[in-house]
């Protein structure tokens, strides 16, 4: 029963990892940008949630109504103001700039919020649970997982059934020709980053409700996101969800064996999958 | 002669240190079809890329509908009504046939061209609307590339070697469609290696040689010998 429980809890945690990963996957897919600051932006969103929650005295989940649009705006501004200037040639400049951004974010958060761990309090929701087949399922993890699935489904639908998704795919295929269709690349990239950070906003608030957080924890979230993306297969959003779930389950099983092995088990699962299926579980279908 | 829709004066174009066009002058009148001929590497594609904004230039070197556009981005130029059928077709592989057409019209410019009109022109595309553009034959892909440009309802249509690599019967189908396309008052610039085709489809022709105009004139008045000299520079 403990094992089954570990798998179920790991699956639910995987939803959060999929949210970490979806934003990364989206911008890599559209503009081949590897955002080293992604984890720190997740943590930034958690702090924004904390600030909004305590300033307005609202429930952490309600803070999403402000955090998500704020993160989207930050994303658009960041892309148009800084990141667009680094794209187009070498892979190195965007890596260096987002690495620098990561350092700035960590130090900025440290300056404003100190290194003390913080947590958002979701009240009764945190302890509420239902018993299914002898396993106690927390309402909050269940809700987060459901929202993660809904976000992935929404992104997938957006990608394949809307004008914006068409613009993203066309720009990803061929930036110059997309420009001939009247799509301003700088704006399309701005929108992609806005969407990526909107998802990051949800991920950050969920993170801040689930666990305590401090300014230094972005790096590990970045790694989880990367691992989920790679396990799932680049450029496949449902694969990203599967990748998150695989990672979550591996971590939960590792922790079940020995509490110190949680992270290690996740990394090992990642490496094994990378060795067995270098293109991920669900590689992109085209080409 | 009415004011030209496109007036190019003293256009230089560079790829890094390499200069591909030297002080090019060229005009297109409203409703006119001009042909651009010239040997491989003469600068025909470079000219198309310059007009469509894929290569940035000095603002005044290219005037369109009376305004300088040389400095504008490709998307801004597209919004003003210039559409390019690029060399090598360059469809979006992640998009279906129909999506490739729809994205061509996403600026929402008004005019005679719509999905229905494209499907009436090239019925095979309607049959294959849902397949990825990569699943089409070369000729069908060229039809999509032309349809994608027409969907923008352009005032000036640029066609870069639309017959390249296609079977003669396919080339005929595509060129048979062209007079109908430009009869709606659209102007067009046609890059074509086949000199006979180029002359028969156009009112005027420019021959490029190593980045310069080596000959220009009315398509029905130039002799083969003149063109041969301008083409190869002998
Ligand atoms: N991206 C590029 N970088 C550097 N040089 C280029 C580039 N594209 C073209 N050139 C050079 O510019 C010159 C003109 O090329 P362009 O493609 O315009 O010729 P073209 O007339 O279209 O030839 P073709 O008939 O082969 O299509 C050539 O010498 C070519 O080598
Ligand atoms: Mg060419």
Description:
The complex is a heterodimer of chains A (287) and B (234). Chain A is an all-alpha fold. Chain A has a single domain (2-114, 138-276), classed as ABC transporter involved in vitamin B12 uptake, BtuC, CATH 1.10.3470. Chain A is built from eleven helices and two strands. Chain A has a two-stranded antiparallel sheet. Chain B is an alpha/beta fold and 234 residues long. In chain B, 34% of the residues lie in helices and 25% in strands. Chain B has helices at 44-52, 74-79, 97-104, 115-121, 123-127, 138-150, 168-182, 195-201, 224-232; strands at residues 6-15, 18-28, 33-38, 62-64, 67-68, 82-85, 156-160, 187-191, 204-209, 212-218. Chain B is globular. The relative contact order of chain B is 0.19. The model of chain B has no long low-confidence stretch (mean pLDDT 93). The interface between A and B is medium-sized, with 20 and 27 residues. The complex binds adenosine-5'-triphosphate and magnesium ion.
Could you list some keywords that capture this structure?
heterodimer; A: 287 residues; two-stranded antiparallel sheet; 11 helices; 2 strands; 75% helix; B: alpha/beta; Rossmann fold; six-stranded mixed beta sheet; 10 strands; 25% strand; binds adenosine-5'-triphosphate; binds magnesium ion
List the helices and strands and how they pair.
The complex is a heterodimer of chains A (287) and B (234).
Chain A lengths: L1 H30 L6 H19 L3 H27 L5 H22 L15 E4 L2 E4 H23 L1 H11 L1 H6 L4 H26 L7 H15 L4 H21 L4 H15 L11
Helix pairs in contact in A: 1-5, 1-8, 1-9, 1-10, 2-3, 2-4, 2-8, 2-9, 3-8, 5-6, 6-8, 9-10, 9-11, 10-11
Chain B lengths: L5 E10 L2 E11 L4 E6 L5 H9 L9 E3 L2 E2 L5 H6 L2 E4 L11 H8 L10 H7 L1 H5 L10 H13 L5 E5 L7 H15 L4 E5 L3 H7 L2 E6 L2 E7 L5 H9 L2
Parallel strand pairs in B: 3-8, 3-9, 6-7, 7-8
Antiparallel strand pairs in B: 1-2, 1-4, 4-5, 9-10
Bound molecules: adenosine-5'-triphosphate and magnesium ion.
The site of magnesium ion (MG) has 4 residues of chain B, from helix 1.
């Amino acid at each position: 029963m403990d094992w089954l429980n570990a798998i179920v809890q790991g699956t639910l945690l995987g939803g959060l990892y999929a949210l970490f990963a979806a934003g990364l996957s989206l911008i890599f897919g559209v503009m081949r940008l590897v955002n080293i600051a992604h984890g720190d932006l997740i943590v930034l969103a958690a702090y924004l949630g904390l600030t909004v929650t305590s300033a307005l005295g609202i429930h952490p989940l309600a803070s999403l109504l402000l955090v998500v649009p704020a993160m989207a705006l930050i994303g658009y501004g960041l892309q148009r103001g800084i990141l667009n200037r680094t794209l187009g040639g070498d892979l190195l400049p965007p890596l260096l700039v987002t690495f620098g951004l990561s350092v700035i974010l960590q130090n900025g958060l440290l300056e404003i919020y100190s290194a003390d761990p913080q947590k958002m309090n979701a009240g009764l929701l945190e302890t509420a649970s239902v018993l299914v087949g002898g396993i106690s399922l927390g309402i909050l993890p269940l809700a987060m997982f459901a929202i993660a699935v809904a976000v992935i489904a929404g992104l997938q639908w957006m990608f394949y059934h809307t004008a914006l998704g068409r613009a993203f795919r066309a720009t990803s295929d061929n930036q110059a020709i997309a420009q001939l269709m009247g799509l301003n690349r700088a704006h399309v990239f701005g929108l992609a980053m806005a969407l990526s950070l909107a998802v990051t906003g949800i991920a950050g608030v969920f993170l801040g409700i689930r666990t305590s957080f401090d300014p230094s924890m972005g790096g590990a979230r970045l790694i989880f996101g990367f691992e989920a993306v790679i396990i799932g297969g680049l450029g496949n959003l449902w694969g990203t969800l599967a990748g998150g779930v695989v990672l979550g389950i591996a971590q939960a099983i590792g922790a079940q064996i020995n509490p110190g092995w949680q992270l290690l088990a996740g990394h090992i699962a990642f490496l094994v999958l990378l060795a067995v299926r270098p293109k991920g579980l669900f590689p992109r279908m085209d080409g | 002669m009415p004011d030209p829709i496109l007036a190019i004066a003293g256009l230089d174009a560079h790829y890094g240190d390499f200069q591909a066009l030297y002080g090019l002058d060229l005009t297109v009148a409203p409703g006119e079809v001009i042909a651009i001929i010239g040997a491989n590497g003469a600068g025909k594609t470079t000219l198309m890329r310059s007009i469509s904004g894929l290569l940035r230039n000095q603002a005044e070197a290219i005037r369109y509908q009376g305004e300088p556009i040389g400095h504008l981005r490709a998307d801004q130029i597209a919004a003003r009504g210039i559409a390019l059928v690029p060399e090598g077709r360059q469809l979006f592989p992640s998009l279906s046939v129909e999506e490739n057409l729809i994205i061509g019209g996403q600026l929402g410019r008004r005019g005679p061209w719509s999905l229905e009109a494209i499907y009436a022109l090239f019925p095979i595309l309607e049959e294959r609307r849902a397949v990825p553009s990569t699943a089409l034959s070369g000729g069908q892909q060229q039809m999509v590339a032309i349809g994608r440009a027409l969907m923008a309802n352009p005032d000036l249509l640029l066609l870069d070697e639309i017959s390249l690599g296609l079977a003669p019967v396919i080339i005929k189908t595509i060129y048979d469609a062209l007079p109908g396309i430009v009869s709606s008052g659209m102007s067009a610039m046609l890059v074509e290696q086949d000199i006979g085709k180029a002359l028969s489809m156009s009112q005027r022709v420019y021959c490029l040689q190593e980045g310069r105009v080596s000959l220009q004139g009315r398509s029905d008045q130039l002799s083969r010998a003149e063109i041969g000299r301008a083409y190869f520079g002998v």
